[in-house]
Design brief:
heterodimer, A: Alpha-Beta Plaits, 6 helices, B: alpha/beta, Rossmann fold, Phosphorylase Kinase, domain 1, Dimethylsulfoxide Reductase, domain 2, 4 domains, seven-stranded mixed sheet, six-stranded mixed sheet
Chain lengths: ~180, ~750
């Protein structure tokens, strides 16, 4: 089992519903976020293009955050989901430094927090909150090891990229371009 | 005191109920959140989910409010059965919980009093406030007649106050949604097809093969169903053509982006009509069967060639031809999108007519992938005595102007509220519900004159918006998550019914609009119109008339009904359009008889002087009007607006990214606050762009105060559409002021 996301940049309108849905689903304190939207503008008027991307923890297969965590709070769960166990986290912030995606933040209650792929929902067979709310349905979530899954089909048929591949972290979020 | 209605800051009063705010804030930062939620091993526990439909915008998506065991609303999720949202709310709907938890909400009724010679508000009981209002209304009716009471409204609450005024004897009910927004579009389509495209629009985007957006930015205007369908159309490979001086989000997803010179849209539309006709690529069968006036149209557009349009629009002739061919290739599965906010330059009905004519030439009305035929569901009205017939109404405030206005015009009601010797139809009292007139209505001077002249101004709102500072009485309404409202009966692809019911008890001393209206009505001796204790009885009665019940709707939230009529025109049928002749009107006799051009003509509009840039305003997907700028869940996504400036202009002015500048318009009006410069290639060099709804100057909006600029204050020139009274607002130009201008601090 290998949980991945494939996000269609051709459809994303950058509305940030994924951000709000994550906040209300996971009780993320207002002012912090586990996911965010990036807009990249390229070219000069009138030959301009935009790429809009919803970003979050890449749940890397080769995770610098898990490797550097002194207490083992950052760890892998089923399907390669990277989690932080809050009770074990001492808030040292080593993982925040190690992450090339700037995906983690210090929760006001003293631990490090980030995207969980909504593991509590995934275990109930649901999509993560961000995926389930997206008005453009530009986000896909699924098991890359299941050859019959929609996500495998999507990735087979579309060009895609991942972020900062040069970091060698083996990110598990793919952007359809 | 009423001749001098001083603006009062509600914050300066040190009002109570802070303890409750503290309670909410604690919840917002999540200190009560079980840690297992964050760790993610377990799902949160909810006591119940309650059906509602959203009130953050007019799309009114149905959803479920999830209530925790300690009676807090944690999240709102779309109702999967509602075709307006398909279970997916937009960011504003998801963040609607921030409206409920906003610490700045109005909490108790407030009444204007004079204390030590100063005007101020004091907290009042509901009885006091309602008695005051009803006594004043009686006084106004005795002196001037009940017609002298007017209502400005926007949103679900407005219906309750409309009924109140109707029972009282006035139909001077108005909303900015007509003369400040969709009025020209609706009028233009009614003149052409005999009906408007309604709301939610009847555009068949999901099955379209070609969609043209002209000044409409779907994706930034987050009209949920349309955004979802545009995404579906992209998936299916539809061609999108976007006409916009700004690279909008939609433009960035389009096969063709035509970066038009602002104010010249009608020239482009006319040249497209020219190409379709003179290149002989329009839908001949459809036009022959359903339209009249083709020959007149052909003659009329003879000189509107792409070469002619090039000089005006800056769009190359070949691009005009090519995009016209794309439309023709997709016909009839093509939509020239009618847009929504269409009050731009004062010839907006004619521009909308050109859009309607293009749709007709391509055979889109009544075709799959074009514009479908809506079907609604009639809900009987709860029995009440017949409303008295007013001796005059909003039509009388037009004074012979705007002959084709089908809905009331805010500005003529405002005009009628300014006393004048011998004026026959005078308005003396306003109820304002759910619309912040200070930000939604251009021409502030006229508005202020009217406000200062009123004998009664009642404002009903959930938030201390700017308009509340001018009220005699402020009534705190509970949010949509805490109340019943009318059923949402939607006419669209499928007739749909949705219920809104309270998810939790109203916080503070707030009350639902139905209760407020009923209380005032009963005090005015109109009890016969309010033959119920709770609004739930009205809903249950209505639902039972159509074979449903309140308890069933509480369970499902949304109910869809099977259509009885076809969704598209059967090409073998003799379909009759809703015009006088049953045909589509290329040539409008109605316009001609009213003294206007029967077919749209291009007229040039003013251009900015050197050093000035056209002020273009629009939407961001996470905000609605000015009503969400204080919503903590949404401001986290976009705290303020920025002024978009082309890098060439930035260089010319020596501006820097994120530098704060003030904007000054052609009439010397300077923005209240500064705004950050966003340097971007997404905007033309002759224009600047800001998102509407920011720059609040009312301190009680503790978050929104002073963040960004308010475009409305810079719109001091309006071009009124003589056909229906729309207030064109895109003819204003601004320049930059780099150093803080010296002026009196405003609150």
């Amino acid at each position: 089992m290998r949980y991945v996301m494939a996000i269609d940049t051709r459809k994303c309108v950058g509305c940030s519903d994924c951000v709000v849905a994550c906040q209300t689903e996971n009780n993320v304190p207002v002012g912090f976020c586990r996911d965010w939207v990036v807009e990249v503008v390229d070219g000069t008027y009138p030959n301009v293009s935009i790429e809009l991307r919803s970003e979050r923890c890449n749940h890397c297969a080769n995770s610098p955050c898990v490797r550097c965590c002194p207490t083992g709070a950052s760890h892998f769960e089923e399907g390669g989901i990277v989690l932080v166990e809050h009770n074990k986290c001492i808030g040292c912030g080593a993982c925040i430094q190690a992450c090339p995606y700037d995906a983690r933040y210090s929760h006001p209650e003293g631990y490090v927090d980030k995207c969980t792929f909504c593991i509590h929902r995934v275990r109930e067979g649901k999509d993560p909150a961000c995926v389930s709310v997206c008005p453009t349905s530009c986000m896909n979530f699924g098991d890359l090891d299941d050859p019959n899954s929609k996500i495998v089909n999507v990735l087979k048929n579309r060009k895609f990229k991942s972020l900062a591949p040069e970091a060698g972290t083996k990110p598990q979020i793919f952007y359809l371009v | 005191m009423h001749s001098r209605r001083k603006f009062i800051k509600i914050s300066s009063l040190g009002l109570g109920a802070t303890a409750l705010v503290g309670g909410m804030a604690k919840w917002v930062v999540g200190s009560s959140s079980p840690k297992n939620i964050s760790i993610g091993s377990q799902s949160p526990v909810f006591a119940k989910k309650v059906p509602t439909y959203c009130e953050v915008c007019f799309w009114k998506c149905a959803g479920w409010a999830y209530v925790t065991p300690d009676n807090q609303i944690q999240k709102i999720i779309g109702n999967a059965d509602d075709p307006q949202c398909n279970g997916r709310l937009c960011p504003r709907g998801t963040g609607g919980v921030g409206m409920f938890s906003d610490p700045d909400r109005l909490k108790t009724p407030l009444m204007r009093v004079i204390k030590n010679g100063e005007q101020t508000y004091r907290e009042a009981s509901w009885d006091e406030a309602l008695d005051f209002i009803s006594n004043k209304m009686k006084e106004i009716a005795e002196k001037h007649g009940p017609e002298s009471m007017a209502l400005f409204n926007h949103g679900s609450s407005g219906k309750h106050f409309t009924q109140l005024l109707n029972a009282f004897g006035s139909n001077n009910v108005t909303a900015p949604s007509f003369a400040q927004c969709r009025g020209p579009r609706d009028t233009g389509f009614e003149l052409t097809f005999g009906e408007s495209v309604s709301s939610p629009e009847v555009t068949d985007i999901r099955d379209t093969r070609c969609m043209v957006l002209i000044g409409s930015h779907i994706g930034e205007n987050m009209h949920n169903g349309q955004v979802q369908e545009m995404s579906e159309a992209i998936d299916k490979g539809a061609v999108i053509i976007t006409v916009d001086p700004r690279l909008s989000t939609a433009a960035s997803k389009s096969k063709y982006w035509l970066p038009i010179k602002p104010s010249t849209d009608l020239a482009l539309l006319l040249s497209w009509i020219h190409v379709l006709i003179y290149d002989d690529i329009y839908n001949k069968e459809y036009v022959a069967k359903y339209a009249e006036g083709y020959n007149e149209l052909k003659d009329h557009v003879k000189d509107y060639t792409p070469e002619w349009a090039y000089g005006i629009t800056t769009i190359k002739p070949e691009q005009i031809r090519q995009t016209a061919r794309e439309m023709a290739n997709a016909s009839p599965a093509v939509i020239i999108h009618p847009g929504r906010h269409t009050t731009w330059y004062g010839d907006d009905v004619q521009r909308s007519r050109a859009i309607a004519i293009l749709n007709a030439l391509l055979g889109s009305w009544g075709s799959r992938g074009g514009i479908f035929l809506k079907e609604g569901f009639k809900i009987p009205e709860f029995p009440h005595p017949v409303y008295p017939k007013p001796s005059w109404s909003w039509q009388d405030t037009l004074n012979g102007r705007y002959p084709l206005a089908k809905e009331s015009i805010t500005n003529t009601i405002i005009e009628a509220s300014i006393p004048e010797e011998g004026k026959e139809h005078q308005i003396k009292g306003w109820i304002v519900s759910g619309t912040n007139l200070i930000v939604s209505i251009p021409l502030k001077e006229q508005l202020m004159k009217a406000i200062q002249s009123l004998e009664l101004l009642v404002v009903v709102d959930t938030m201390p918006m700017e308009i509340t500072g001018y009220a005699d009485v402020v009534l705190p309404e509970c949010t949509y998550l805490e109340r019943y409202d009318d059923l949402r009966a939607t006419a669209h692809r499928e007739p749909t019914l949705c219920l809104r019911m309270p998810a939790v008890e109203p916080l503070y001393e707030t009350k639902p609009a139905w209760w407020i209206a009923k209380q005032i009505g009963e005090r005015l001796g109109l009890s016969a119109y309010y033959n119920y204790k709770n609004f739930s009885e009205v809903l249950d009665w209505q639902l039972k008339q159509v074979g449903l019940s309140l308890s069933e709707m509480e369970r499902v939230g949304t109910k869809k009904f099977a259509r009885k009529t076809p969704v598209y025109i059967d090409p073998n049928s003799d379909y009759q359009f809703k015009t006088a002749s049953g045909k589509i009107h290329f040539y409008s006799k109605e316009l001609e008889e009213a003294g206007f051009d029967p077919m749209p003509k291009y007229t040039a509009h003013d251009q900015p002087e050197e050093g000035f840039y056209r002020l273009i305003y629009g939407r961001a997907p996470m905000h609605t009007f000015s009503r969400t700028a204080n919503n903590r869940n949404l401001v986290a996504l976009m705290p303020e607006n920025a002024v978009w400036v082309n890098p060439q202009v930035v260089e010319l002015w020596g501006l820097k990214k994120d530098q704060h500048v003030w904007l000054k318009n052609q009439d010397g009006i300077v923005s209240n606050f500064s705004v950050k410069v966003r340097v971007t290639e997404r905007i033309r060099w002759d224009s600047v762009y800001i998102v509407h709804g920011f720059g609040h100057h009312h301190k009680p909006l503790t978050y929104a105060f002073g963040r960004g600029v308010n475009d409305t204050e810079l719109i001091s020139k309006i071009s009124v559409d003589p056909i229906m009274g729309g207030t064109g607002m895109r003819g204003n130009f601004v320049t930059f002021i780099k150093d803080q201008p010296k002026k009196e601090a405003k609150s």
